[in-house]
Amino acid sequence: MGMTKDIGQRVEIVNIDEFHEITIALYQQHIVNGPVYLVHSYSSIEGVADRIEFVVQTMSILGGMVFVENEAKKLYLSCGFEHLSATKLLFLKSCQVDPYMVPDVLPLTVFDKKSDQDISAISLGSGVYELIASGKDEKQVKRLQIIRKLMLKHGGLEMIDESTHRIGFSCGHSHDILVGLLLAHAIKVRVSALAG
Asked: Is the entire prediction scored with pTM above 0.85?
């Protein structure tokens, strides 16, 4: 991870953004109340400020992140924890959103084409979620297990109860909006992403 004295520690980067192939990075700053994330680009071409604003706004919408007061490019999670894996994924996904579309919060139930069933993340409170599949056959149950593993790996969640497909955040707080993003990502990503 690169270190920049003035703006914090770089934790993720998009080397060739769709906006004029500029580089955009996500930086983490540590403050008393927990980590804050800054979206930044060193490019000075016209329109960069608007591009950064779009990415930051999208992170707020798709991840439920909160703006630092009087800081338009800085965000944090209300629980005060870093949730680094999930935040990095949120940043990358936000950079991929069509700038001509208005992003919307993703649902906690998604249809999975690969197994022909609905997959739902049910909030049980205290940051715990139970993954439920509408299908019951062996192939559909196995697919649910794969989605759970992908959410654990890419979202930095913890296994709570394997038998009931319960996973959760170490902070003990619910993050429904962020879980919607993680669920949608897990359903779309290739199973090969579990390797390594």
From this structure: yes
